[in-house]
Amino acid sequence: MLTRLSIRDFAVVAHAELDFGAGLTVVSGETGAGKSLLVDALGFLSGARGDAGAVRHGAQRAELSAEFALDDCPAATCWLAEADLDDDGACQLRRTLRADGGSKAWINGRSVTIAQLSELAALLVEIHGQHAQQALLVRPQQTRLLDDFARHPDLLAATGESARRWKALQQERDALLARGDVAERQGWLQHQLDELQAQPLEPAVLAELDASHRRQAHAASLIAACDAALDALGGDDALTGRLQQLRNGLQRETTHEPRLVEVDAMLDSAAIQLDEALALMQRIRDDLDLDPDALAEIERQLVRVQDLARKHRVTPDKLAAHRDALAAELESLADADARLQRLDRDIAVALAAWRTAATALAASRRKAGDALGAAITALIGELGMQGGRFEVALEANASDSPDPNGGERAEFLVSANPGQPPRPLRKVASGGELSRVSLAIEVATQGQDAAATLVFDEVDAGIGGAVAAAVGAKLRALGASKQVLCVTHQPQVAAAGHAQYRVSKAAQDGITQSSVAALDAAGRVDEIARMVGGADVSKEARAAAKKLLDSH
Question: What is the model's pTM?
């Protein structure tokens, strides 16, 4: 539910802070005062294309923000969580429109794309009016509304599940057939695999091969270095012998200088390290050998690995994984023919299951469509479209492939006047008629669309008297289950509201500005009296206003 709308430097509004509650809130005002600006503001917050003309003259940018309570909108709560934009149950939409035509959007203080703003707003607010994008005009939404009205979730689930099963099996079959001739593919894979399996390719093996190559390639220099080190470290005249002589000399003097004991301990540790280094050096030297044949064999293997890597278009360290992948594919092809036969049987079963579920779904939709059409036809008659007719047409999908949404889609048709053939709702020319039809749909379906806030603009265009009273009554009834905002110039509709705002305009510093004010009980009497009798409010107009208000 919309709880607050903030407007700054938007069109002719310098600043407005509006609080909203549950039920029906009406917005009234003189012609040209800017009543529809509130609808326009919500439209921009719902992702409408940015317009530099929406920025108040003299300002650099317009700022719009709306806050929503999510208690009655679980779909929006889930969307925020999935998008990582949730904030302890808060939901704030914000957008700026610059004078140069640019715009930015935020959700809960975090920058988002206009597409994201629009996606979330569609779950929060539904705008009905000739200048607004309406989800009711979109055929998928019409189908969803019909399904909600029919209350057949089990049929929808069965149809969707069988369609997805069929698609998954079909994709598996297509992938198997895309491999071409299985026998030819098997032969090619086996050849490639034999080639790769003839050479050890594990990363650890390749690393050791590379290390062995380096050792063999530098064997002469390694041997010379090891021999020189052994000569320097070993023997009486070598480093170890001199170190022992040094220790012997120092040990004789320890009685005169006790600290030399500590020095001797350090030299003893060094002597141990030298002995260990000497032993390791000897082992390394023993392992070294000038073997041209061994070097040639290692180089042959390295060249073979490089050739395989180039041939298979992978790096050497990926050859083992590539080999294993070929082996897995070869194994999967072992029973390809049998798998193909099983897939054909499973696909036929899934298709039959979908047709059964889709047929049952279509029957339920037809029954619900007849009931919905009759209910809305009666409602639009009450709303000033006597003789009008509403129908729900079901059109079969162009493709025979199983569709998760069934084998047909709904189209809302309406005839506004007697004798006229029903036409698609999206092609109805009159904005007022379109709004009233939308109102009738919402009332008939009890507001079963996802949005918790419904906005009606121009819903009472071209009507008055008893018809306007009927429109007001329907809006108020809808307000029992949804939050409803309605821009109106009809006193009968305004009187039906639970709350009312008045938009007025005045010239300030030579610039026309609009202001929005919440009306108390006395203010509502005055405003509705003005709507009844014009600028000069008479006692009779006040009495009529009170009577209208008391009727609700």
Answer: 0.59
